[in-house]
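[Archive record]
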Amino acid sequence: MSHRKVIEDYYCDINNLTDLLSKLTNCYRLLVGGAGELNSIAAAHKKDVKDALHRADELGDVIDKIINAIDKSTVEYAQYCKMRTEIVKKKMKFEYIETEIDEELFLNSLDEIDNDIKEE
């Protein structure tokens, strides 16, 4: 497997973790909200409310583990991006890029002049 494929898979894994985090966070909010609603019902047993909070707390622990995994993964991915940027900077010839930009600007100005002539 090429290095690029490994990094692309790594990035995909980070995206999957963030997607999972989003979904679990929404579930957590619903669990906490449900426990709050259950607590406001007079006929609810105290044990049911504690069980609902316990489920939310367990999910919170899972969310913490995912956040930790994302933190570790994004640090490594950011280092990869930084290293890649440094390599591109070293390989890139700025005078070629400047020439390309100048040519593009020159061609754009010629197009504007042609448009002005056609409008007259």
About this structure: The mean pLDDT is 85. The first helix runs from residue 3 to 40.
